Amino acid sequence: GTSCTDMRMIRPDGRMFWIEAYDTLHFPPEGGVIWTGYAQDITERKLLEQDLRLSEAKFRTLVENANDIIYTLTPEGELSYISPNWQDVLGYEVEPFIGHSYEPLIHPDDLDRTREFMRAVFTTGKKQSGVEYRIRHADGSWRWHTSNASPVLDEAGRVSAYLGIAREITERKQQEAQIHHLAHHDLLTGLPNRAMFFDRLEAAIDEAS
Fold first, then answer.
1. Helices then strands (H, E): number in the chain?
2. Closest Cα partner for 127 from 156, 94, 165?
3. Sign of torsion, CA 32 38 39 45?
4. 3-state SS assignment for residue 103
């Protein structure tokens, strides 16, 4: 049979290089053994493989130590990768959610927004940013998150996946709500002020027109 072996060899100048050797074993009728085969220099390929392994290791280290949740979605909206800090942030184990839709975790009032955001990534093939939505944590509470997303292209240049980076913004949303309340209510009485009145009046006019 034929065998294939990768091996390192040393040139006369002392430099190391890789070869890929194919050998075939023959047993002629007159007896004995004959080896035939050929070898090719694969040093460049080995160096590229080494660079790829290093790049993957660096990416894995970056993702696994990031504060933000990094995840990927298929065109069908199924989670295909979730960074380990998912459990630290949301309280869920990662594995049960791989291969399943993200939608059961999203607040019903925010589903359309997240669907449109995901659709924009896949249809335009361009980065999207700033979608805000509520997600149910393992303790049952709803927390605000925001996501940025980039398309992942296949060899044909088609969008094959959605790469998302999400972070919790619950505290920021609470501060925004407090500022909005202070801007529209009297500090002493707590009653709505003129700013609130004109906001409501403008909304009513918009609805009537």
1. 5, 8
2. 165
3. negative
4. helix
